[in-house]
């Protein structure tokens, strides 16, 4: 049976993820944020009305998401859920997992067809069309992207402190809501940042920047830019692309890196942050392989190794390539134009 357990764990992965996602939807972890509660209190407050809701709660206990006091039978958050899944916590990332469970779970339903090279509907190949098709998409997608880079945006200014101290201006290409630009300018108070994206993202950027302190707001701005049709802004110290090139084919990846190169002057920098994969030791980067397969499922892209990104940058005309690990699965890759 020991040999069966790893298979059972993987085979039940979708069910576990759905139970986890429903717990987030029902705000179970928020409700337990202030301390332990009885079964009846949870069922009543979180609106669980089916005939045996406690099986759902005990599943969460069995998955180490909740603790259960053996004497009182009361439930409480685990250390992880208390830290990351209670909305009032500074480290809250519940939205990220809710999106992962819903958006990405559905996309993965087509994986077998994708692997067989069959056409699947709704592959993301034109963000302009996707944004125009539903006016809610820029906000929905922007919030999702923001939830994906919550940690990275805080670590980018910290881990690369000396790098940022040596520059003043940067432009983020495909920056979406502007969250990375905002966090960089908050933490590095000399920086002046331009967030670029398709024009449909401007209202979401405005929402994200509306409550900013004037000392930050005066140093960030939005520029509408379609990276397929337009050149990148010139005169910048840094051109950044975070989780952007992974959406696209190798040809488009290289085209975007080359556009950054063409816009920069000699001695200035490109900074890419993305999820590097380790093909020599796949176990080192399981999450990033999952993202790579996901990119192939929803778009035309894929993740890449440190060797591959180094080659793209070198071929485009960058030197001194540095790779710095940011959070547990994202890395920053920096190159300097020759
Ligand atoms: C995966 S998101 C990354 C967002 C952000 N940089 C981050 O790290 O979360 C890709 C971004 O590329 C933008 N994008 C897609 N096509 C674009 C185009 N043709 N021109 C400019 N931006 C585009 C999308 O709107 C989206 O914000």
Automatic annotation (TrEMBL):
One Gene Ontology term of the molecular function aspect: protein dimerization activity
Residue ranges occupied by any O-methyltransferase C-terminal domain in the UniProt entry: 127-319
Single GO BP term: methylation
Domain O-methyltransferase dimerisation residue range list: 12-86
Annotated active site: 246
Residues passing through the membrane, by range: none
Record flagged with keyword S-adenosyl-L-methionine: yes
Keywords: Methyltransferase, S-adenosyl-L-methionine, Transferase
CDD domains (UniProt xref): AdoMet_MTases
Name of the protein described by the UniProt record: Methyltransferase
Source organism: Halteria grandinella
């Amino acid at each position: 049976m020991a040999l069966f357990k790893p298979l059972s764990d993987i085979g039940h992965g979708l069910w576990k993820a759905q139970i986890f996602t429903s717990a987030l939807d029902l705000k179970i972890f928020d409700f337990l944020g202030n301390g332990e509660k009885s079964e009846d209190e949870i069922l009543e407050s979180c609106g669980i009305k089916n005939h045996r809701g406690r099986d759902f709660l005990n599943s969460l206990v069995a998955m180490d998401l909740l603790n259960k006091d053996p004497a009182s039978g009361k439930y409480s958050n685990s250390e992880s859920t208390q830290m990351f899944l209670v909305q009032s916590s500074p480290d809250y990332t519940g939205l990220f997992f809710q999106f992962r469970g819903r958006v990405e779970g559905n996309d993965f339903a087509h994986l077998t067809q994708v692997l067989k090279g069959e056409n699947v509907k709704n592959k993301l190949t034109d963000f302009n069309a996707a944004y125009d098709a539903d006016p809610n998409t820029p906000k929905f997608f922007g919030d999702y992207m923001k939830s994906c880079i919550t940690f990275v945006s805080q670590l980018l200014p910290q881990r690369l402190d000396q790098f940022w101290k040596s520059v003043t201006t940067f432009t983020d290409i495909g920056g979406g809501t502007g969250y990375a630009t905002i966090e960089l300018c908050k933490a590095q108070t000399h920086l002046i940042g331009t967030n670029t994206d398709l024009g449909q993202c401007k209202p979401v950027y405005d929402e994200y920047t509306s409550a900013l302190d004037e000392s930050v707001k005066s140093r960030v701005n939005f520029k509408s830019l379609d990276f397929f049709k337009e050149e990148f802004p010139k005169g910048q110290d840094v051109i950044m692309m975070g989780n952007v090139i992974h959406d696209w084919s190798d040809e488009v990846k290289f085209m975007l890196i080359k556009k950054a190169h063409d816009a920069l002057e000699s001695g200035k920098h490109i900074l890419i942050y993305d999820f590097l994969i380790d093909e020599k030791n796949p176990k080192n980067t399981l999450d990033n392989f999952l993202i790579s397969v996901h990119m192939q499922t929803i778009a035309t892209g894929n993740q890449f190794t440190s060797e591959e990104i180094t080659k793209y940058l070198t071929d485009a005309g960058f030197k001194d390539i540095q790779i710095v690990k940011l959070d547990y699965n994202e890395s920053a890759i920096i190159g300097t134009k020759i």
